[in-house]
Specification:
By secondary structure, this protein is mostly helical. The chain is built from ten helices and no strands. Helix 6 runs antiparallel to helix 10 and helix 9 packs antiparallel against helix 10. 30% of the residues are buried.
Length: 189
């Protein structure tokens, strides 16, 4: 059984993925987590604190299911491809994470505090991928600026995730498009 703060963050992520952020109430999170609202305020101070920590929780959880790609191969191209494809899996936790990330991103348009946290999390993701892209280029494939390529690929993953979750693109097609984009980004220019 997870500790109480983790239990609360899991509940918040579930609710955000299902219903979005704008109408999220602390009382709903407490009911979903099976804890008192006082305990949520104790651990997270207020709703904004809960949202910030939920974004961090979602980011850490994504790292846990994408990091195995780094151990799957010594080839940075394979690692990059596998890492991005792991963002699009038909697994409940990945679907929930992707939906919650999209909801938090949409809410950040109106919430400057959340916007800054989301920008930091996105920057970390882009930097990790840029590092892998740079390794691929060092291994003999010259291409675009690694950071710009990583920005394009992460934006594509987010867009494909939204299309897949909304049923407008199949998971197989999303994977095909992503593989094609990775190849295009890594192709020698």
């Amino acid at each position: 059984m997870p500790d109480r703060p983790t239990q609360i963050l899991e509940a918040a992520a579930r609710l955000i993925a299902r219903r979005g952020v704008r109408g999220l109430r602390v009382e709903e999170v407490s009911a979903e987590a099976g804890v008192s609202t006082a305990l949520i305020y104790y651990h997270f101070k207020d709703r904004a604190g809960l949202l910030r920590r939920t974004l961090e929780f979602i980011s850490r959880r994504a790292v846990r299911y994408t990091d195995p790609a780094l151990e799957s191969s010594d080839d940075p191209r394979t690692q990059l491809t596998d890492m991005l494809l792991l963002e699009l899996q038909d697994i409940a936790q990945v679907r929930e994470n992707s939906a919650a990330w999209g909801e938090l991103r949409a809410t950040a348009v109106f919430d400057p505090d959340l916007r800054e946290l989301l920008a930091d999390a996105t920057r970390d993701w882009v930097e990790d991928l840029a590092q892998l892209i740079g390794q691929v280029q060092t291994a003999g494939s010259a291409g675009a600026d690694p950071y710009a390529a990583a920005e394009r690929l992460t934006a594509l993953v987010e867009g494909l995730s939204e299309r897949w979750l909304s049923g407008t693109t199949s998971l197989q097609r999303a994977h095909e498009l992503l593989r094609g984009a990775i190849e295009a980004e890594l192709r020698a220019r």
